[in-house]
Amino acid sequence: MVTTVLEAAVNVPSVRRIVITSSCVTLIPFEWNMAPNSERLYSASDINSDPQKPYGSAMEAYWASKAYSRIATREFIEKKKPHFDFVHLLPSVVFGPDERISSNGSVDDLLKDNRAAVLAPALDGSTNSSFPFVGVPVHVADVARAHVDAVDSARIPGNTEYILSSDTPEGVVWDRDVAAVAKKYFPEEVESKLLPLEGTLPCIKWRLDGDATEKAFGWKFISFEKTMKELLKQYLKLKQNASQ
């Protein structure tokens, strides 16, 4: 897919840059999850250069596809030397409030994808993930902001790659840190069991280098604490709608 886009861009002289949404999963092989190196610091220069086949699950195939896409882009630019350049953005676990949901909407609309799993430690266990998450969060607004800023070639150099992740390098521990935010900002809801803190999200520690991104783009990532506070606030508002 990515090579199709790149080949098409060759025929459009006005294209100067292609910003590609990649993923932090391209930094490591899928097998890393079974024996993670939680002490090493990973940077955007790391890449899973040889994804293993066959794939044992859809998730494993997804990881490989992202790595192949990143490799293919690098090879295309190196061999074809087109008139445009690229910027790869590598987001980690993307979540945050969903501004598309109306204030009088349904909480079910919020409890989808990563949001359901990330909220799990604050809830009753019904949204627990069947697999662990790496402890590397990023606010969805920061991911959007990075894509817009990456278009500016006067600001961001071409043929570069950037990790999008907050709270680096140590990341978060989902159960501990979600509960801490809930207790700090919503103590009454915790006391009343609106936020029962009975769920869990197993965590794999993954140390990422986000400093290079913040220096290049000139802004700081929104903290996990603020991101989680915003998400819990939206959850409680939508939950209130259900009881009315």
From TrEMBL:
Keywords: Oxidoreductase. Transmembrane segments: none annotated. One of its GO terms (molecular function) is oxidoreductase activity, acting on the CH-OH group of donors, NAD or NADP as acceptor. InterPro entries: NAD(P)-bd_dom_sf (IPR036291), NAD(P)_dehydrat-like (IPR050425). Belongs to the NAD(P)-dependent epimerase/dehydratase family. Dihydroflavonol-4-reductase subfamily. This is NAD-dependent epimerase/dehydratase domain-containing protein. It comes from Trichoderma semiorbis.
